[in-house]
């Protein structure tokens, strides 16, 4: 429909073979997805029951019993199916496929004649479908089913689940819309919007795109849908308060989406919505909508994002707060929100390749998202603070949402499957193609088959990220081909050096990408060297939490201090502003990571005495040899203090 | 019973005439107490109803209707009566006395034959008296009635209310005690304990002292009283959760009081309990109890107290948290808690005059307590943060308890009457007498008649505090008298200079007091000069919130920066470590206060651009001429930023 959009890369064409990332993807395949399957079937000893599969069995008439769980319990099955779909797109696994086929049979059996499927409403509130969108995630759950179905269909070519969700989407299309006999409404938790775009891509059916756009455009209009359905259903609440109905900004329903100036409310909902807005802008060429996307992007990344790519400054309402309010210790920075930010970034890159989108995507991926999962794949952070004083957890309730170590699966039911589906589909985030240009956004080793100007080009990539900034491409073409390879020069890089077939290449740059345009032939090699100095990052002067402090970053990785290396009382450490940073790979730390060592000063307690306040205190310091480790790897050595931002000293 | 205790000064003997404090006491008399009376009678337009007087009228059979309000609604009437008592002790007011007599008649009429009085139970749960001490403040309410009665009796000599609360106390004594037919219990909110000591002083009846000690000693013992009464009443909750029953430390019932090592839980309860512990230790010479008082005192003032004398680091549970956890922005620091800390300090001074107790008393009084009330006497802070970013209030829910301006009466029902009764009884806190020594703790102008060694001595004091450190005493004696006048040398003072009848006097000091022992004759004059430099206060290195920062103090006053004087973005201000502080009285600021001016530096935003984080940021500063104002006077010029702690720069 429009020329704005880059073509979508099939995950099938990308095979990741990377010393850093392959291990994470293996974890998803070997640990996370099987573990999740056990969880969905209530086979994890000691865990709270999920009963998500059982809900479907009851709805399908295979078992008897009652619905159990949250109103959106079905979405756990859907996200599992989506992760399975991505895994199968990159590597066949007949056993896994067989399990998934059985789940699909079950979902199809539970589906009502008219296409409707949602085990909560089918079992618990039959006849009350579509009466409480603001609170009950009914379209959200449908959206996840659609995403799972599309991923599985793309992996296997099997249409059963795709057909099922088409019937579901058609049913939704018959219920919602601008026509007088339909509901002019939308879901409290955005998700259906981006899912319908995926369904449109999978099927080519324009009505799904139209329905997605309807949901977006309807949002936040007056007279307000939440009020209308509230009155219609007799003023009942699902969650025991009318908060989700009255606090419109919580679900970004306080104004029409094109009029929203800043990132407000529940952070996951906002970025899921933005991803769909960008999708629709790309498909329709709607400049107003694209402008709204750019505005909300800017609101997030220039005023409301942690240096780790985390978003959402407060636990209450899992929400954005206000500009420049980014407390390190009480941060929410939900793992899912950074995943959603990556979704949004990916869509913006599809529209307008600009390295600033990719910089944020990389920042969120390498820091918050990666930090969300432990190295064993069995423990997860929901909340990702930038500073931790574990002694205060449990004692000062301001930190009740902060966990000092990653929790088992059921400590946080939404983030683990989200991490799984993102990592399983990582190949989708590396490149975009537009016209005769291939943009490389993330440097992750492996092979990608990309169609440019009608020809299939194979890009073999080797990357030493995140430890060193050396990246090498080798191309295979069927015949000589004229196109541009656009290599992202990350914001963290020193002066990049490019060699084409061994010769220095002086590339033009555009929007943060070094452009190599030529007639490519098989065997052409490009080497990219991105100097990785240790960077002393400063926060904007209006960022209250970071004034007078610095954070270290090297390559895409933000670093932190941990008690394990530096002792307690990290608050007393000061970095001399000219102190030299030495980076080295330490095979003995955290299974092998690049650490940063720096001489610093520690506020001395020695001569202080026991007074809490002193009038004549001569501040004295002791030398301290500090070791910084990558933020993503924190909290893997027991409970201890952690800090990303460290005080500076002239 | 013991020699440890100093004699109690009658408020009647103290007449405050002070350029600083008289105005506050006038406010209590002319504004706060009348306003409170209107509030108790539901005559404040726009305010939530109190119905506290009406509850008594219904209980007395004068009106019909239902109980309204909190379970401890009666205590509002009691605190009003207590403030009235103090006002009448210092100045007769026949009209006010008449109103109070009518209230007393009403209370007496509502009182049951057996002495019991509590309108909640009489009207709402008759027959359920004494079944839910852990939650329902029944003894707390009785304690306030007793305090009110004693104050009124001491003012007027009228026994009616004293006799009524004696009957109440005797009833309580018949219900509670170690005997098998009595309840071995105590109140969830400590208050009765200190009230019974006052009743003992007023009546000489040792059983009240014994009962107080019983309540203290019973607290926190196993098997736990809260469990026993919970089972006995059939596991019901008053507040909808069993939190007050199961979280023992909330009400300092997690261990016997002598075994409590640190200040835990609800901060007001803790200090009310400590005040009673000190009372009992003084009366009984119980060294173990005194040691427990010292231990809890030390826990508060060396690890858990704000520089403003505020206590309680978190809003949740209005509570202490852990050592060195004193966040400025999310502080609770309830006004009532600082008042309770003053109660505790006063009792410790009675036992062992040590200027460290008086230093804390003064710190809490001049900063948090005074700051709790507006200059019009009609607006109050419940919560006293040390840093405010008003834009975040209402947007970041971590600050939901923080109000950027003082609220009208019913925004906070407990602090205003507590401020009123403290200020109305300020005369009780100035001096203690022990043997042949009179210790002057607070420098407040006026006259005090104090009996020393059988002779009544009149101390006429003139004080320039808090603006200047000049204090002058003139004594009137009936005949020459040999005793020691011990003048507190505050922690904030430079080298003190004392002149006796115009001659330099080289005083010995003991426990922070300069001792002047001599045969005093009428007309003897003592002049005390306490140099008031601007002090740069530092926090203990383990105080996370204050590392790298400084607070200014001059005399007893802690200072702060306000947006009104210094613009927005106080977080970007840095005090050069050697910058000179100039203090001057500014009649145009806040109705005339001593301000402090200092040249500082402001982090520049000029060349920053819109990036949130920068790798190459050269921090640049602009000069900034800062004005600090006394903390107690903040938030009297509209809504704006405020900060006590300011960053330092080498």
UniProtKB/TrEMBL annotation, chains A, B:
The keyword Hydrolase applies. Residues 438-532 form the Non-reducing end beta-L-arabinofuranosidase-like GH127 middle domain. It comes from the Bacteria. Keywords: Hydrolase. Residues 14-427 form the Non-reducing end beta-L-arabinofuranosidase-like GH127 catalytic domain. GO terms for molecular function: hydrolase activity. InterPro entries: 6-hairpin_glycosidase_sf (IPR008928), Beta-AFase-like (IPR049174), Beta-AFase-like_GH127_C (IPR049049), Beta-AFase-like_GH127_cat (IPR012878), Beta-AFase-like_GH127_middle (IPR049046). The keyword Hydrolase applies. GO terms for biological process: carbohydrate metabolic process. It holds the Pfam family Glyco_hydro127M. Residues 536-647 form the Non-reducing end beta-L-arabinofuranosidase-like GH127 C-terminal domain. SUPFAM superfamilies: Six-hairpin glycosidases (SSF48208). PANTHER family: DUF1680 DOMAIN PROTEIN (AFU_ORTHOLOGUE AFUA_1G08910). This is Glycoside hydrolase family 127 protein. The lineage of its organism: Bacteria, Bacillati, Bacillota, Bacilli, Bacillales.
């Amino acid at each position: 429909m429009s020329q704005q959009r880059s073509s979508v890369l099939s995950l099938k064409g990308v095979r990741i073979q990377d010393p850093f990332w392959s291990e994470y993807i293996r974890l998803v395949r070997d640990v996370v997805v099987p573990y999740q399957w056990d969880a969905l079937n209530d086979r994890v000893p000691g865990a709270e029951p999920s009963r998500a599969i059982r809900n479907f069995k009851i709805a399908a008439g295979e078992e008897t019993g009652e619905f159990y769980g949250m109103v959106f319990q079905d979405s756990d099955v859907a996200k599992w199916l989506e992760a399975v779909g991505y895994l199968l797109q990159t590597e066949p696994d007949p056993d896994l496929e067989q399990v998934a086929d059985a789940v699909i049979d079950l979902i199809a059996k539970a589906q009502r004649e008219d296409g409707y499927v949602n085990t909560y409403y089918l079992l618990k509130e039959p006849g009350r479908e579509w009466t409480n969108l603001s609170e009950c995630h009914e379209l959200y759950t449908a959206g996840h089913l659609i995403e799972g179905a599309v991923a599985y269909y793309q992996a296997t070519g099997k249409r059963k689940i795709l057909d099922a969700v088409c019937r579901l989407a058609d049913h939704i299309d018959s219920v919602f819309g601008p026509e007088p006999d339909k509901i002019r409404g939308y879901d409290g938790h955005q998700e259906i919007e981006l899912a319908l775009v995926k369904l449109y891509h999978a099927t080519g059916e324009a009505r799904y795109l139209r329905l997605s756009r309807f949901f977006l455009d309807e949002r936040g209009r007056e007279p307000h849908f939440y009020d209308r359905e509230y009155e219609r259903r007799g003023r009942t609440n699902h969650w025991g308060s009318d908060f989700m109905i009255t606090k419109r900004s919580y679900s970004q329903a306080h104004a029409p989406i094109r009029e929203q100036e800043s990132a407000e409310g529940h952070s996951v909902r906002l970025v899921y919505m933005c991803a769909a807005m960008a999708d629709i802008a790309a498909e329709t060429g709607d400049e107003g909508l694209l402008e709204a996307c750019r505005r909300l992007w800017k609101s997030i990344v220039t005023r409301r994002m942690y240096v780790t790519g985390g978003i959402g400054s407060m636990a209450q309402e899992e929400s954005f707060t206000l500009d420049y309010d980014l407390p390190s210790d009480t941060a929410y920075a939900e793992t899912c929100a950074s995943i959603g930010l990556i979704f949004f970034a990916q869509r913006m890159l599809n529209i307008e390749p600009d390295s600033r989108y990719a910089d944020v995507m990389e920042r969120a991926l390498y820091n918050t998202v990666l930090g969300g999962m432990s190295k064993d794949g069995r423990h997860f952070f929901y909340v990702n603070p930038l500073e931790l004083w574990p002694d205060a957890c449990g004692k000062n309730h301001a930190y009740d949402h902060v966990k000092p170590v990653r929790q088992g699966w059921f400590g946080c039911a939404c983030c683990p499957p989200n991490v799984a589906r993102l990592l399983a589909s990582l190949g989708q985030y590396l490149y975009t193609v537009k016209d005769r240009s291939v943009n490389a956004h993330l440097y992750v080793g492996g092979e990608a088959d990309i169609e440019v100007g009608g020809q299939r080009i194979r890009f073999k990539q080797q990357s030493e990220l995140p430890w060193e900034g050396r990246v090498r491409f080798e191309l295979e073409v069927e015949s000589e081909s004229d196109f541009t390879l656009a290599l992202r020069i990350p914001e963290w890089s020193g002066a990049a050096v490019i060699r084409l077939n061994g010769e220095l290449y002086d590339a033009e740059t555009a929007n943060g990408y070094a452009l190599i345009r030529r007639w490519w032939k098989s065997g052409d090699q490009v080497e990219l060297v991105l100097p990785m100095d240790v960077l002393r990052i400063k926060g904007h002067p209006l960022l209250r939490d970071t004034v007078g402090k610095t954070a270290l970053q090297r390559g895409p990785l933000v670093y932190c201090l941990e008690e394990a290396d530096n002792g307690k009382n990290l608050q007393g450490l000061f970095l001399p502003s000219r102190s030299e940073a030495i980076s080295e790979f330490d095979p003995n730390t955290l299974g092998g990571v690049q650490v940063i060592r720096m001489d610093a000063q520690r506020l001395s307690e020695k001569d202080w005495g026991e007074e809490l306040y002193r009038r004549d205190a001569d501040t004295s310091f002791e030398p301290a040899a500090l070791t910084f480790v990558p933020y993503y790897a924190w909290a893997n050595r027991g409970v201890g203090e952690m800090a990303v931002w460290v005080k500076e000293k002239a």
